[in-house]
Prior knowledge:
Low-confidence stretches: none
Strand content: 15-25%
CATH topology of the largest domain: Dihydrodipicolinate Reductase, domain 2
Structural class: alpha/beta
Amino acid sequence: MTVNDDSFTNWMHREEIAESMIPIIGKLHREQDVNVLLHSRSLVNKSVVSILKTHRFARQIAGEELSVTETMPFLRALTTLDLGPSQIDIGMLAATYRADGRGLSVEEFTAEAVAGAAGENKIERRASRDVVLYGFGRIGRLIARLLIEKAGSGNGLRLRAIVVRKGKGQDIVKRASLLRRDSIHGQFQGTITVDEANGKIIANGNEIQVIYSDDPTTVDYTAYGIDDAILIDNTGRWRDREGLSKHLRPGISKVVLTAPGKSDVPNIVHGVNHDTIKPDDQILSCASCTTNAIVPPLKAMADEYGVLRGHVETVHSYTNDQNLLDNYHGSDRRGRSAALNMVITETGAASAVAKALPDLKAPITGSSIRVPVPDVSIAILSLRLERETTREEVLDYLRNVSLASPLKRQIDFISAPDAVSSDFIGSRHASIVDAGATKVDGDNAILYLWYDNEFGYSCQVIRVVQHVSGVEYPTFPAPAV
């Protein structure tokens, strides 16, 4: 047998194991509301090849590839336990088991590591929480995809309605088509049908009522059977408390804004300050995509090294707020063709840091350049630290943060030498540290942080909504503090 034959035989063996993982992962998700992760990446509804690629990607952050032959025993061990709603990272289980020297069996170690999610300790499955999307643009449709994807267990969040201004012609058919196909993020994973007679879009069995309105104060959501719902405003039309309060209609109990909030509206970056949300808070902002990209690594660096001052330069993909071709625009420069120019513009991300990290006293400045790509941006974060360090120390630290810290869902890490922006389309992290581009000289550090300003940000919004609704389930093994 040749070496190539050995490699192919090994591939087929791993393919077979990954294939056998799929029904186990699906059953845990549907029946026990357990989301199986691998280094913070969900394996629910993933293909055989996707599962294998996720295992292989572990070498980018952990230094060596993780094999399905290593993780499969832990997955099987989970099926023997009386688990409640939780997120369980089999990559972390394998890694911590490898470092454990007590001689426990996989079954014994797994039972101990996830004890907080099993038996008497398990959380009871909660009734689903209604969600309404006000606006159905780029972010709205991606949030809809995520909500539908996460509805598989029948619990958690349930998308009940979208509110839009009625367009001409077959409005609901066109909106369903935009949900079904996306030029950047690809096809919707599932089936979508339209019930025009009843004004509904049906996606993977989820009936989504389309409500036409241009004035939030005219809608009574209880008329559609919606109660105690969280409304996500994707329009950015209202950004202060007075404007957003218009959404607090019958059937709506909380409002979450997908843009930076003004005045006293709390700006929440999940993973950093979501624990400051009070039970009686009715109006929240998820800040901006750029704020979500820079605040988690900024917090990580401040915690370890201290930060005296910083500057962020954002190279940002163009958005619908710009003109396709030169035309009038209310803002400077944004009237020039987005597809043909680099456009200098303002960013509020630096000033928003103070809201998310009030204990950080270091001044942070910022500027932005819009460039002719449709998605994925990069933030160049230049920091003056309180102590000197080395590039190797910073990279080791950030790699560990991405693997085993409370920020591991926000911060990803990549060491691929030829990574470019399109590689990060669909990333679910708020920020991805590019190890190859990182520069450190004494007390100066420059981090290059990729982020999918559409999808990664939408994932952060969903995390905030899950936390607000009480369906943000704990992760095991617990991240290191």
